[in-house]
């Protein structure tokens, strides 16, 4: 392993991007092939869908950055920013920020859903709506569980693995490669746009993109990828727990509407706190840009 560690460290930016894309496609296809062999491509049984979720998350997001970091750097843990110690106080503030941001995210999502494309792009808009509906139906199937074991399995499959994998590939690998080409701030936004796009939920594109940008800045300021992983995980887990309670008879307000409609003022207040928190984090970590 020592002989191959860092062997591609001098590769150009274009080469690294192509290798990253190629490796991601390879593991995604390989994982899907394994899933197909074991399940015969069954997309109607919930267990099969959850297995597909697992192999795709690991194949597309976890394995590529972990494997490639060994070729791109003699210090792969440092390359992916996994080597930093994480303070409990930082985790607390990041978690608090994500909770406070929920109404603002909902408000942005509500505004995003009112997107109307020109008539010339009517076909595209129809496809976007169809994709959104299919994604929503799939998510509801995955989240609809009625026991604690199912809840923890969903937290593992839909919260932990995606948070770990998506942050490693988008913030750890992709943002790191683009940073050497266009500078860290452009890298943050390009990674955020791609991060939001790959979810194929276009009517939530804007809030997801801004969330991805926050994760990118959080890594930039702190140098610690565990913080965006924790923020991403918490955001996913809150939704999973809420829907678990909802599907099991608990009468709760719709978490996706807090900050919109009659509670618009909560969304505005949340947005104000988010903006304040964004600059507060920047000051807290006192990161000096070197781009």
Provide a count of the helices: 10
The coarse silhouette is globular
Domains, number: 2
Could you tell me the strand content as a percent range? Answer: under 5%
Low-confidence stretches: none
Structural class estimated from helices and strands: mainly alpha
Instruction: Give the integer mean of the pLDDT values.
Output: 89
Write the layout of secondary structure elements.
Blueprint lengths: L12 H27 L6 H27 L3 H4 L8 H26 L8 H22 L4 H35 L1 H14 L7 H18 L3 H22 L16 H22 L6
Tell me about this structure.
- The chain has helices spanning 13-39, 46-72, 76-79, 88-113, 122-143, 148-182, 184-197, 205-222, 226-247, 264-285.
- It has 291 residues and is mostly helical.
- The protein folds into two domains: 1-79, no CATH class; 85-285, no CATH class.
- The chain is globular and about 60 Å long.
- The model has no long low-confidence stretch (mean pLDDT 89).
Attribute tags:
2 domains; 10 helices
Task: Describe this structure in a few short sentences.
75% of the residues lie in helices and 0% in strands. It is mainly alpha-helical and 291 residues long. The longest helix is centred in the middle third of the chain and has 35 residues, at 148-182.
């Amino acid at each position: 392993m020592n002989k191959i560690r860092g062997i591609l460290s001098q590769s150009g930016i274009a080469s690294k991007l192509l290798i990253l894309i190629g490796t991601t496609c390879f593991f995604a296809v390989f994982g899907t092939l394994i899933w197909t062999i074991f399940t015969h491509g069954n997309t109607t049984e919930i267990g099969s869908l959850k297995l597909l979720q697992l192999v795709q998350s690991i194949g597309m997001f976890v394995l590529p950055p972990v494997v490639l970091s060994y070729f791109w750097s003699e210090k792969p843990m440092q390359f992916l920013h996994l080597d930093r110690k994480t303070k409990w106080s930082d985790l607390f503030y990041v978690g608090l920020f994500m909770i406070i941001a929920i109404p603002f995210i909902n408000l942005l999502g509500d505004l995003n859903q009112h997107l109307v494309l020109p008539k010339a792009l009517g076909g595209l808009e129809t496809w976007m709506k169809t994709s959104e509906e299919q994604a929503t139906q799939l998510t509801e199937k995955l989240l609809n569980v009625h026991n604690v074991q199912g809840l923890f399995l969903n937290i593992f499959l839909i919260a932990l693995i995606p948070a770990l994998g998506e942050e490693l590939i988008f913030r750890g690998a992709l943002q790191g490669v683009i940073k050497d080409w266009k500078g860290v701030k452009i890298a943050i936004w390009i990674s955020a746009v791609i991060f939001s796009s790959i979810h194929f939920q276009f009517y939530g594109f804007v809030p997801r993109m801004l969330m991805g940008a926050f994760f990118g800045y959080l890594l930039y300021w702190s140098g610690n990828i565990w913080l965006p992983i924790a923020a991403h995980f918490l955001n996913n887990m809150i939704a999973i727990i809420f829907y678990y309670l909802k599907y099991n008879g608990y009468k709760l307000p719709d978490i996706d509407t807090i900050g919109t409609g009659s509670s618009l003022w909560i969304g505005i207040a949340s947005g104000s706190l988010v903006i304040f928190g964004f600059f507060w984090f920047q000051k807290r970590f006192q990161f000096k840009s070197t781009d």
